[in-house]
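pasting for the record
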Amino acid sequence: MTIILLVTLAVLLVAGMLLTARGRAATIKDLSELAGRTHPVDVAAFHNLIDLQEEQYLRSALPRREFRKVQRERMRAALAYVGNIAQNAAIVLRLGESAQNDPRQEIAKVGRALSEQALRLRILAAMAAIKISVRILFPELQLSPAIVMDAYCQLSGQVMQLCRHQMPANISRVVAAL
């Protein structure tokens, strides 16, 4: 009986993780629908919030109590960025799925890569959100969610690649939406 219960829980957990990773974003048919649905992410500001050197500086410059307060605020802001990244990845996942159905092979190929990267980013964002949440509770722990920032930059590059094929005149506008 215990084994059946554990297997059932494991199956439900995996199904929940897959649904979370895929997201619930509305269908998006092409790049022109991207603007207004995404939340632009200031990558430099996010990097500053999760930068270990910046954290070390604050740790050395501030009294322990003040550092903990500031670090909690920094992690709350980082958590908001990760939420936006996860939401943008869900929208880009839908864009990639749509591009996969394009009759032009080069666009379909970029769409597949875009979908894979967006799904990977959603999973990384979920893990980063957990790490950041732990850091809000325990500000002195050093768990870095930097891999999310790298994956988001890769995803942005792949969106730009798709844009070069579908809407080359609008690259800057599309990339600014991310």
